[in-house]
């Protein structure tokens, strides 16, 4: 009888743990590829009977266009128009691709900094339109959400969560210098073996590379502190009605879902509330549309090359398109190119242009031999998942870093978009298709990606549900968050111990001096006597 | 057709990932509770059709007595007898319990150090008997094992793995000052918020506690370096026929299975190849033997208290037994006491003595109200699993630390075995049974333990199988292992940058001085003119 009771109790307990019937999730998203990635999590949450509501501005360019039928959208009004946002984001991206200085890292970083500043100004506008909209906040409060899922690259999610008094979870791929992960998440990043984000270094650094990594670390730390943090701190303090800072608010995140894993990144220290769920959007290939399938099959034993520059860049200047097209015309493979510009004159008969391609299904096709990619994290992960070697032509944001990583892992050849010639591209394609090492390395990464105790998507959803079930995950939060920077580095303790040691040495030497003087005096007296 | 092919390929790929048919596992175990814990993993591996072989000495006290029918045992001869080992281990334990100094931490640690020294001398003897036994090593080599699972607390497993040229995995709970985890595993342990192992501190430290933690860190670091490491280094170099060290050999571990989790420990930085699988031996309660069940049921609404001092200590001096028995006689609960000594005179009618008890089944019984425990990690985890508050009477090894942690988490009251009175024990029992906070906290820890994406045992087995499938897990290994201590802390880089800065300042000031002198000279000349 008693044993039955235990079993019943245990079952009830376990059931109550492993389901949150109809949890309510509020979402603070980011445009473009970030949205594609996050939507995978949201669709899965909706599949599991949670009510998912996405806060989206009336000016959203991409999210509105790629809505999901199972997700609710709370559209808030903003003074910006769609054209404003499209112009701004496209201008930032174009400047990054075509105008960022190439000759010096510092000039490049400084240009990148300006891009970020413009982006954050835009996010701040959106944020004001949400948190100062009393009616909207009241409506959201009345909805009694269980958790907020925020894209960590765009501030404001944590502020909305604070206003609604609900726990929040971040989804994040990478920030320059790992500054957000470090200063908001408490993630340790020793510069001796953790190459900082955007440094394009590997974990096997020479002495001079470690010097470089240290300088980058200091640079990004300084940049981050010099960012308009004070403006955000003031804004957050005003909205919350108490003195606070952006970082202190971000530090309250229960869980960080980091969109990479050890097939993509180099292994590094992590924290119990950091879960590396990279590639969660990857899935087995579905059948291709008939037209594409026929084209693919027509490639024979040579197979196909898939080419896409991502969801934001579907066009390019004519000269670049011709350089690329003429290289593609010379390879034995058939090419499927996602391109929405004027058909290049040098386009070969082996190359087909498409405005949109089923990228994941193509990468999972057995005839696919290589992937020419801009190096967006989503695309790179699809290539890893299906074990396809890459030719990387990074354009902006973290793409240079992603391709540098794939190159270091022996699964990609890297080219420069602005300067590469047809021969460069041709050679790169020949290398990744003819040298079996690239395929082997891509397959090794694929095995790592597939062979995890729990699928990344299930892990991401598990931790969001965990936060809903337990109203947080405080047991995973390190105490580092409660320390100042000098306490964190034990500088006060080291100072105290050094002061103690100095005092002891001082007292001992004074005593010795005193004794010696007494002894010397006595000796003198004795001599005089 | 092609899509079918993809699916077939993917299935084959996935199947090949997720099963290692008949992998061969060699085991380097440790006696007593360590063996109980490891046996759970080995039984599970055997259940999954792996061939498990345990290297056990002819003098083993506990492992031989607690063999498993599904595991093979490779018994090697040693010059020690069972009595030698039993006497040695019991003498170490008794000295730790009854003779370790109480008045000063330093005297206690120094006493503990002597206990460890004696233990490691014994392990070294066993190790020599294995690795210098050429016939045994030849036999093991011929068996072509896929992986070696070693208890990290007793060196030698890594040496055997090196001789057999197979990857190895550690199972480990905790070492003093986290020294092994730090120096062999590369685990970062910032002293500002990670209380070092055996310090009995929490992660919420005052300034003086942080000073204490820093001093402990330095002390244990010094202790570890001052241990007879050189002796081991020489031994390992001789056996492997190349200059090497114990630490360098240990650093090659593919995976560290750490026997705790964030319900037991405070959150801290970890590494991708450290998997926290505490409580993997816990399981739902089975029905009790009829006699015990009848006794438990006779307790009525008051319920029962379970009392055990673990697998190594089943007896105690008469005066201590009487102090305990008279306290137990005064509580309204019935008491089940695992005790193998002379029946205490003060034993109450509510207390039943047993030479052995089904501890996990009792802790999972709905009538169990509290657990009096010595604080062994296995027992504490069973209490956590079933949500039972504890009265901790730590005796030796990590037990003081374990009980300090449970006390800090509000799930235990701590007593001192050598000095506690009947009233102390009575009050402690009243506190944990009458104050609902203790039960609530124990249940909170239980919820954390139950609510994980994968059960700890499955996670442990997954990573051992992973190492077998992929012949290692190099992608999880941080590059910190390839750095010297000053490189790890970037001291060479900092030194270089400071030297550069000093040179620049020197040159600038020299230039300024030169210009100033020139300017001054000219001025003087002009004046003279």
UniProtKB/TrEMBL annotation, chains A, B:
One of its GO terms (molecular function) is glucuronosyltransferase activity. One of its GO terms (cellular component) is endoplasmic reticulum membrane. It is found in: Endoplasmic reticulum membrane; Membrane. InterPro entries: UDP-glycosyltransferase, UDP_glucos_trans, UDP_glycos_trans_CS. It is an enzyme of class 2 (transferase). Its EC number is 2.4.1.17. It is a single-pass membrane protein. The keyword Glycoprotein applies. It catalyses: glucuronate acceptor + UDP-alpha-D-glucuronate = acceptor beta-D-glucuronoside + UDP + H(+). Its main location: endoplasmic reticulum. Keywords: Endoplasmic reticulum, Glycoprotein, Glycosyltransferase, Membrane, Signal, Transferase, Transmembrane, Transmembrane helix. Residues 1-22 form the signal peptide. Gene3D superfamilies: Glycogen Phosphorylase B (3.40.50.2000). SUPFAM superfamilies: UDP-Glycosyltransferase/glycogen phosphorylase (SSF53756). The keyword Glycoprotein applies. The chain crosses the membrane at residues 493-516. It holds the Pfam family UDPGT. Belongs to the UDP-glycosyltransferase family. This is UDP-glucuronosyltransferase. The lineage of its organism: Eukaryota, Metazoa, Chordata, Craniata, Vertebrata.
